[in-house]
Design brief:
Blueprint lengths: L2 H35 L6 H5 L1 E6 L2 E5 L5 H6 L10 H10 L4
Helix pairs in contact: 1-4
């Protein structure tokens, strides 16, 4: 391995670590904000919102509640009551900090 490829490898590892740390922070904020924005009837949806680290630099925020997608996206008979998309939009409207 040459000097340039060794440097590039170290830089890529550092960059991935930094990006992963940033996304971890943002996804944690998204969970908190989504919990504040989620509609509450029983509290099950709000309590079930969490994040999962899928891979380095890849996080998923959501809820395992069987009706969570219907609340977020709506149905033919029910308007969407977006809480996850709105949480992410709010975070990035503040500059993603």
């Amino acid at each position: 391995m040459g000097i340039n490829s060794e440097f590039e490898s170290k830089l890529n590892a550092f960059t991935k670590t930094q990006v992963d740390a940033y996304l971890d922070k943002i996804s944690t904020q998204a969970v908190s904000e989504a919990k504040l924005l989620s509609p509450v009837k029983t509290g099950n949806l709000r309590e079930s919102i969490h994040k999962i680290k899928v891979a380095i630099g890849e996080y998923m925020v959501g809820s395992p509640a069987n009706y969570a997608a219907f609340v977020e996206l709506g149905t033919r008979k029910m308007a969407p009551r977006s809480y996850i998309r709105l949480a992410i939009r709010n975070i990035f409207s503040r500059g993603g900090k």
